[in-house]
What does this fold into?
Amino acid sequence: MKRETKLMHYGRTATPGPANPPIMRASTILHDTVESYRATKAARATDDAVLSYGRRGTTTAHQLAAALADLEEAEACFLFPTGVAAVAGALTPYLGAGDHLLVVDTIFPATRSYCDTVLARNGVEVDYFPWDTIDLSDYVRPNTRMVLAESPASQSYEVMDLPALCRDAHDRGLIVATDNTYGSSWLYRPLALGCDLSIVAGTKYIGGHADTMMGAVAARGPAVDALRRHTAMTGQTLGPDDAYACLRGLRTLGLRMERHGENADRLVAWFQTRPEVAEVLHPGLPGHPGSRIWARDACGCNGLLTVGFREGFDAEAFVDRLRLFSVGSSWGGFESLAMPAAPDSGRRFPRPDRGAGQMIRFHAGLEHACDLIADLEASFDRA
It folds into this structure.
């Protein structure tokens, strides 16, 4: 069955019944017998869909987790209240005091902050490596336990060769996790490329409507059991209302991603014609770092692009004049966004030829591309 068809049928209950599975709100799950209670507790040790206690999610969350596991080609998927919580959940089960973690230097800034503060405080050593690394010889240590990647890179979209990196890491006995929020379980499937863990902030495209917070970690192989125990012990789960909103968001994920990608392509091509623009960063552009790898491993691009303006151009004033693009954190919803970007801030390996002009990260929403371009053009005209 094609993935587009599966999106319409995830969580479907027996008929006659609702098209969408209903929201189940529950903390206590009742049993008629002690035997039933004990059997449920025993079953939940390996079966994530067992309804046993609200802290482990209700059937609404279980159906969402099962859907994401299928999309990611995972053995299991575990849900978290936010994307950053999912990052923490994907790292904590495998790292302890004295361990060493390798992180790609182009990682999402909030993830860097977690690694440099919380993990460091707990005795985990953290080092960073360049995005184009496929041989970890210069970075690995005897106490290295794990590699954390993100592809495409946060804000600048360099594409990693995940299959090559995973082969090298696995030869060294390391676990590999990657942030897959850009691909959001649809454009990109890191587990099929060799990763052990795929992290997604469902707040973005999976929810899709700028009104839900969610994180997910899909896992395969030996990584599954440790993650399952960790989520149970730390009480990580997703509320049924947010799970319902994300499951509903999945129905249109393919169509929305297609429109976001098309609109971003239109904006990229248009920005490249403007004399005020020094460069456009987008993984679908020929010549972009890793664009050939992205074409090989993924199936399209999302709505993100970053524009570097020529030195002296007031890009922030340009954003303030826009009417259809709002300024706000996050992305992946239906709306178009624009906000200042500083891709090299805090990085150990900044790009040496990065221009001196201001940079703006755009998210192309679901509006008509002609209207978005007209809005951008009007702001340029008023500069």
